[in-house]
Design a protein that fits this description.
Blueprint: H1 11-27, H2 47-65, H3 73-89, H4 95-111, H5 118-127, H6 137-160, H7 166-177, H8 184-193, H9 200-207, H10 211-237, H11 249-257, H12 263-287
Helix pairs in contact: 1-3, 2-3, 2-10, 3-4, 4-6, 6-7, 6-10, 8-12
Length: 288
């Protein structure tokens, strides 16, 4: 029996989260300045190109204003909300990461009415000695930053070799970006869930991209997201806040919701889910 990820959040909370995410996606700032050059501005954006556009806008602002610029929270959350679609395309293996990521982005977005900028968040939590407290906005921002970096590293690995499988790309990306900050239990559960990742071809199909178009959009995101990630890190280090604290929330969720993190059970569940998913997508391709 596959793990019931939907029980992690109450029904009303799931509905509210989904509605807010869809709303931010629809109004996200994906339009570019009139001076920007594009091959075909009339072409409908794919999910991947929308993400790349949003982060290029943020990155352009950072480059023009410098790292001392006080990045506003609302446009940052608008861009980050689009990344949740990429987590969703990775299937059940990253379902928990998707739910966590969306939840934290929504928390930050709700706070934008009170805290206008990312700096304001850190200043508030530093004053209240709550930077590393569960549920604090600074902790949520750190979690979102890890998600952005995970996708960036996954894309880099995905493009490094033509025959690199998504499992290899994702495993290496997780080991480099998130694993150093996670407990053994989290790392073990993530490793067990890697068997449920789609194939390289399935991922491209889900993203509605070809090898060529995916490479172009992924490289755009890689280049545009790095300055944002470095900016967030500087918010912490400039205040003498270490970046190496472990994230215990996974275990807290497990204890509260009885989330199955037993590696063998999770591996078996993911394998069954992965097999049925592959068979369904293969049938869809053969029907075409």
């Amino acid at each position: 029996m596959a793990p019931n990820f939907r029980t992690l959040f109450p029904r009303r909370e799931r509905q509210r989260t989904a509605e807010e995410t869809r709303e931010r996606v629809s109004r996200s700032r994906v339009s570019m300045d009139e001076e920007a050059s594009f091959e075909d501005v009339n072409t409908e954006l794919t999910q991947l190109s929308a993400v790349a556009n949003a982060f290029e806008e943020l990155s352009a602002v950072m480059k023009s204003k410098g790292f001392n610029y006080d990045l506003r929270l609302e446009p940052f959350c608008d861009a980050c909300s689009l990344v949740s679609v990429l987590f969703g395309s990775l299937g059940i293996a990253f379902k928990f990461a998707e739910l966590e990521y969306v939840s934290k982005v929504n928390d930050l977005a709700e706070a934008s009415g009170i805290h206008a900028t990312l700096n304001n968040i850190l200043d508030f939590d530093v004053r209240n000695d709550s930077v590393k407290t569960q549920g604090s906005l600074s902790r949520n921002l750190r979690r979102v930053r890890l998600g952005l970096d995970l996708i960036r590293a996954l894309f880099q690995n995905f493009l490094s070799l033509d025959d690199c499988s998504l499992k290899e790309a994702a495993s290496a990306a997780y080991a480099k970006t998130c694993a150093p900050y996670h407990t053994w239990a989290i790392r073990t559960a993530v490793s067990a869930g890697m068997c449920a990742l789609p194939t390289r071809e399935q991922l491209l199909l889900r993203l509605n991209e070809t090898e060529e178009s995916a490479e172009k959009q992924m490289r755009r995101y890689i280049n545009a997201s790095l300055p944002i990630i470095e900016y967030i890190d500087k918010l912490y280090t400039s205040r003498n806040i270490s970046l190496d604290w472990q994230i215990e929330h996974f275990l807290e969720v497990h204890q509260k919701h009885e989330f199955p993190i037993c590696p063998k059970k999770l591996s078996d569940q993911c394998r069954l889910k992965h097999t049925s998913s592959n068979e369904g997508e293969a049938k869809g391709l053969s029907d075409k």
